[in-house]
Structures are given as C-alpha cells and as structure tokens.
Amino acid sequence: MPMSEYCIYCFKDGDFTGDITMEDMINISLKHMRELFKGDPDFNEQAALIKMRDFFPELKRWKKSL
After folding, report:
1. What are phi and psi of 58, to 5 degrees?
2. Rounded mean pLDDT, 20-40
3. 16 pairs with which residues across the strands?
4. pLDDT value at position 66?
C-alpha cells in the first residue's frame, strides 16, 4: 500500500504506527492543535473537534472500523 494513502502519523515503515482508536487519534491531534494555535484568538477547539469527527471517519484507516 502506498505511503500516500496514510499520513506520517498513522503509517511508517510499511505498517501502522500504533493500535489506537479513531477517537484517540482525534484527541492526540487536538492536543497538537492546542499547542500549535496557542494564543490564536481565532482557534475554536469545539469547531476543530466537530470538523475532525466529521473528517476522520472518511479517511481510509478509519473507514472500515465504523
């Protein structure tokens, strides 16, 4: 399977990087977003969560788990 099908946080060296749930990955992503957008008054954590919960289920890794 080509690397382009998955991001670097999900797939490395021919295998998935960890056995985590989609919700765990969303929480990890949110943690990174909080740090990245720290001090940005336009960052809306709730809006980010809603977008990720809509988007992640469409990704190939998570599609089959639903």
Report:
1. -85, -15
2. 93
3. 11
4. 46
Sign of the Cα torsion 26, 31, 36, 38 reads positive
Q: Which residues pair with 11 in a beta bridge?
A: 16
**One-letter amino acid of 40:** D
Residues in the chain: 66
Rounded CA gap, 33 and 45, in Å? 8
What phi, psi does 57 have (nearest 5°)? Answer: -60, -15
3-state helix/strand/coil string of 1-66:
CCHHHCCCCCEECCEECCCCCHHHHHHHHHHHHHHHCCCCCCCCHHHHHHHHHHHHHHCHHHHCCC
